[in-house]
């Protein structure tokens, strides 16, 4: 016989040659389905703050426990009630990070989901290497500016006398 997914019951009946009989009922559950796990935040993007929230949902009728691995630290979540675990607030370090969430049911089926994201709070340092810097320029009305930064710049804009100019990266 093949048991079905979910609740099963079976009655066993036996007779011996002397006419004695007995029976017993057995109840068991078959669970071959992984919990359904969905991380809703953080997303696979760049964040500019260290304090973030891990939010996720778990769908599972027989949830046993959930845990999180963040920056090589395992955090067991004892905050589940019934069929749900809840997220946590956390402080991230700066850089490229990942968080892995695990949800395990009572049949030891484990769902795993990982999110990759970046935290960058350091502002670019700008250095004027060429051009007027609190100086009076007498010889020309043309101004040449060279700016360097300690990291890659996506966009640079100068507000010159109320007009915005996009700078071009030539590195």
Structure description:
The chain is mainly β. The protein is 0% helix and 54% strand. The chain contains no helices and 14 strands. Strands 4-10-9-6-7 form a five-stranded mixed beta sheet, with no helix packed on it. It has a three-stranded antiparallel beta sheet with strand order 3-5-8, with no helix packed on it. A two-stranded antiparallel sheet has the order 1-2. Strand 6 and strand 7 form a beta hairpin. It starts with 5 loop residues before the first strand and ends in a 5-residue tail after the last strand. The mean pLDDT is 83.
Short description:
The protein is mostly beta strands. It is 0% helix and 54% strand.
In the predicted model, the low-confidence regions spanning at least 5 consecutive residues are none
The pLDDT mean sits at 83
Query: What fraction strand?
Result: over 45%
Protein structure class: mainly beta
Q: What integer value in Å does the Rg equal?
A: 31 Å
Question: Number of helical segments?
Answer: 0
Please tag this protein with its features.
171 residues, mainly beta, 3-stranded antiparallel β-sheet, 0% helix, rod-shaped
């Amino acid at each position: 016989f093949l048991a079905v997914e979910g609740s099963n019951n079976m009655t066993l009946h036996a007779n011996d040659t002397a006419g004695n009989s007995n029976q017993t009922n057995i109840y068991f559950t078959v669970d071959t389905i992984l919990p359904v796990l969905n991380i809703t935040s953080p997303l696979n993007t760049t964040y500019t703050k260290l304090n973030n929230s891990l939010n996720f949902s778990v769908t599972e009728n027989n949830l046993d426990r959930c845990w999180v691995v963040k920056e090589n630290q395992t955090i067991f979540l004892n905050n589940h009630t019934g069929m749900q675990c809840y997220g946590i607030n956390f402080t991230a370090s700066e850089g490229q990070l990942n968080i892995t969430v695990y949800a395990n049911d009572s049949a030891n089926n484990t769902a795993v989901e990982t999110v990759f994201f970046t935290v960058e709070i350091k502002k670019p340092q700008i250095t004027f290497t060429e051009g007027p810097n609190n100086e009076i320029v007498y010889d020309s009305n043309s101004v040449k500016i060279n700016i360097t930064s300690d990291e890659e710049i996506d966009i640079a804009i100068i507000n010159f006398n109320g007009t915005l100019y996009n700078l071009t990266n030539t590195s």
